[in-house]
Amino acid sequence: MNQLGPWVAAAALIALPFVYREPYHLHILILILIWSFAYTSWSMMGRFGLVSLGHGGFMGVGAYVTALLWNHLGLSPWLGIPVAMAAAAVLAVIVAYPCFRFRITGHYFVLVTLALSGIVLQVITATRDYTGGSLGYTPDRTRGSHLLALQFDDKATWYLIALAVWALGLVIWRWVDRSMNRYALEAISEDEDAAAAAGVNVTAEKLKITVISALMTSLAGALYCQYQMFISPDTVSAGGGAADRLWHQGRRLGQPRLRRAAGGVHYLPAQGHPGQPRRTAETAAQALGLRVSSDVQRPYPSRQPTSAAKLW
What we know:
- This protein is mainly α and 312 residues long.
- The chain has helices at 4-19, 23-46, 55-73, 77-101, 106-126, 128-131, 146-149, 155-178, 180-190, 192-197, 202-228, 233-236, 238-253, 256-261, 279-287, 307-311; strands spanning 290-293, 298-301.
- The longest helix has 27 residues, at 202-228.
- The protein is globular and about 60 Å long.
């Protein structure tokens, strides 16, 4: 019975648009599936300790490159999407390889990826003559084959496409989970030096999972643009906006882990609950390589005294 469960669920999901055709509800399901695929690609890195806030940039590359190739060169999205995915992969290598090669990790890597998203956003806004800038961009409606242009008015068709892409994301996740790369990446996330000593190519393994994640995210961006027939900088900067909301939410609730997840280093409260004074603040600060000062109530980098200071 347990083995039949996934097949029954898959059959029910496939049959859904044929038995229930309410347009608005199908629209919501399509968006859920596309964004689920996007967040699956994002979590491909996160599960191995590579926190990225730059995936909005990869999503923007996938969406805008596909639409620009269609509008200006008449290149079908069936060809434009692979080109956009290749562009996102090249961008991922350009940004990630120096970071991994020179061991820029932790919240420093988070800040690099956040800068990537901001740069892509600024490029889109600055090239307004081609991308529409902050007003957004709309792919041209086809006058020929809807299949060739990947433009469908039927919600059921888009639902099946989004469902197939979402299932593809789960297949890729399962493939990574069952491959030898998983053990290598888990070893790297726990201790890079020990993994390298055991023969793991740390840079190559981290770069490989980053490129896979970027390819998937750019595909999600291209599909989102084709479905909505509109893309804007606000859409591709959703990752950065989510990080900003997480940052402020963590600050309001006083949760260090939320602040760490947002990639920001904030002032930490120097007071804790009775019986556990300053424990929460010290734990979070130690995780970030910081030390809490009880005088000024803010963390500052721990520094070992230099040889000159020891003389005094």
